[in-house]
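Deliverable D5.2: sample structural annotation.
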Amino acid sequence: MTPAEFQTSLANPSPPAGLSTALAALWWMGKGEWNRAHQVAMSGEDADCAWAHAHLHRVEGDLDNARYWYHRAGRAPATGELVPEWTAMVAALLGSPRR
């Protein structure tokens, strides 16, 4: 799946089959469903889920919690705009092995 196909899939009522947990969380965030995205991100235990979880807490405005999750993900805390971060995360995770 390409990032463009991922973006187009947001018109559907549910995420495409086969997405990693982190991508499913970002998919729900892309639909504006923060609570659903957060539930999904919390269900995963890998670094990608921690990264998605960090982004969600940035969206929420809880920067202390976001920093904690970036640390758990092994990544520096993001400071830029939220939409470009989401877009870059989707592209990066689509290019990584499925978990």
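Annotation notes: DSSP finds six helices and no strands in the chain. Helices lie at 3-9, 21-30, 34-43, 47-60, 63-73, 82-94.
The annotation will be released with the project's public dataset once the embargo ends.
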